[in-house]
Automatic annotation (TrEMBL):
Name of the protein described by the UniProt record: Nocturnin
GO cellular component: cytoplasm
CDD domains (UniProt xref): Deadenylase_nocturnin
Biological processes, Gene Ontology terms: circadian rhythm; nucleobase-containing compound metabolic process
Similarity comment: Belongs to the CCR4/nocturin family.
Chief site of localization: cytoplasm
Location of the protein in the cell: Cytoplasm
Cofactor requirement: Mg(2+)
Organism: Anabas testudineus
Domain named Endonuclease/exonuclease/phosphatase: residues: 152-430
Superkingdom of origin organism: Eukaryota
Pfam family, one: Exo_endo_phos
Length: 443
């Protein structure tokens, strides 16, 4: 075994210690690495060491599920249990408490509304005292298809983080309440009605987003972070993660995979959801992924490694479905990759995607006059450490197989306001990205 720690720590035989891998921002982090059984299967368990003890996890609120309670007990246990495997297979717990504002009991299980217009009116009524919405408009780039594929990418801000850890010093606490934010989030989604919806920092999947959007014709999958910072917040609703929704009237699901991203073959705390879809109108396949890479300065190398790992997974999946030879870097299945990459365009992970042999480009470059410059910002916030205005979010697409027909523009600085994001007008510190695509003719 290779010993990669410079620390002197007593561990069971067959284990080693790696310091610094992302999991808990509030404490020193160590990942226990070991071998299972014959030594051919690599697994890990993460500890946050505080005064030589494993870190306790905050208890969750009434909306938490048995799944999350079990996860909490496992991670705060003194026993070195392995984290979930790379391909997480998580299912909805039986005791989910559905949001009563959207799901009404009618002599049986709660039923969520099936009418989007009715739900949008409900959101408008709940938000009647708020400032006006940002007046965003679509920039049309081509005549395109009469029924394009609309894609939305959005980090919606985990509720536990918004209220507990993220420190939005200019945002009133009332504007951060879930009772208000849930209507703003659903209003944003319903306003643009994407056929593919990619979300990060989702910690109200089972009780709100899934039941409501399923009632509107979407199907979905969710992958929580193995060690979510939401678990550090008292009264949390469970771990946050990535969720991918698609309109079942437009697409048929062929395969869905949850991936725990790795760096140098070591599992990390970041995840991705990948789906292989078949377009019902054209019969063509489309591979869609949503991810959320490691945050904060100093972790550029980890984001680059995570991005490379995701590209490898995507290449393998499309080769599997198109029947191409191993190593084929240009399979006949277009890709859409949405995410909060926590990386500015100058970072290595951005260069990895833009130069990938998979032929990727960033849709929001189309907003610039030269077509090669990202927007000035996709997130704008004020924290105790200062103001942050930068681009971290992207919609990547296969430029040789998909055409960008339209892109939703960004609100101006004046429209966002001096207190920045989030606010009474907008529920997240990240702006949604929305783009219309159509398939290019096969060559």
């Amino acid at each position: 075994m290779i010993v990669v720690s410079s620390e002197s720590v007593d561990l069971p035989s067959g284990l080693c210690l790696v310091k610094g891998l992302d999991i808990c921002p509030q404490a020193p982090v160590f990942t226990i690495l070991g071998f299972h059984g014959s030594g051919n299967v690599f697994h890990s368990m993460v500890y946050c060491l505080e005064d030589s003890h494993t870190r306790a996890v905050c208890p969750m609120g009434g909306g938490a599920t048995r799944l999350y309670s079990t996860l909490t007990q496992t991670l705060s246990s003194s026993s070195p249990l392995p984290l979930p495997p790379s391909h997480l297979e998580l299912h909805q717990p039986a005791d989910t408490n559905l949001d009563p504002d959207f799901c009404q009991a009618q002599n049986g299980p709660p039923v969520c509304p099936l009418d989007a217009a009715q739900l949008l009116r409900q959101c408008d009524e709940a938000l009647k005292d708020r400032p006006p919405r940002f007046p965003r408009k679509f920039i049309h780039l081509s005549d395109g298809d009469r029924s394009p594929i609309r894609v939305m990418q959005w980090n919606i801000l985990a509720q536990a983080l918004g209220e507990g850890l993220d420190g939005f010093v200019q945002c009133p606490l009332e504007a951060l309440s879930w009772s208000r934010r849930k209507y703003l989030i659903l209003e944003e989604i319903l306003t643009y009605r994407p056929h593919i919806l990619c979300l990060q920092e989702v910690d109200h999947y089972y009780d709100t987003l899934k039941p409501v959007l399923v009632g509107l014709g979407y199907s979905s999958n969710f992958c929580p972070k193995p060690w979510s910072p939401c678990l550090d917040v008292e009264g949390n609703n469970g771990p946050d993660g990535c969720a991918l929704f698609f309109d079942q009237s437009r697409f048929k699901l062929l395969e869905s995979v949850n991936i725990r991203l790795s760096a140098m073959r070591i599992p990390t705390n970041q995840v991705a959801v990948v789906m292989m879809l078949r377009c019902r109108s054209t019969g063509r396949c489309l591979c869609v992924a949503v991810t959320h890479l490691k945050a904060r300065s100093g972790w550029e190398w980890l984001r680059s490694a995570q991005g490379s790992d995701l590209l490898r997974h995507l290449q393998n999946l499309v080769q599997k479905h198109c029947g191409g030879p191993a190593g084929d870097t240009s399979p006949d299945v277009p890709l859409l990759i949405c995410g909060d990459f926590n990386a500015v365009p100058a970072e290595e992970v951005y260069r990895r995607f833009i130069t990938s042999p998979l032929g990727l480009d960033s849709a929001y470059k189309k907003l610039s006059q030269d077509g090669s410059t990202e927007p000035e910002y996709t997130t704008w916030k004020i924290r105790p450490t200062g103001e942050c205005c930068t681009t971290l979010d992207y919609i990547w697409y296969s430029k040789d197989m998909l055409r960008v027909d339209a892109v939703l523009d960004m609100p101006t600085e004046e429209q966002i306001g001096p207190n920045r994001l989030p606010s009474f007008s907008y529920p997240s510190d990240h702006l949604s990205l929305v783009s219309d695509f159509s398939f290019k003719a096969k060559q």
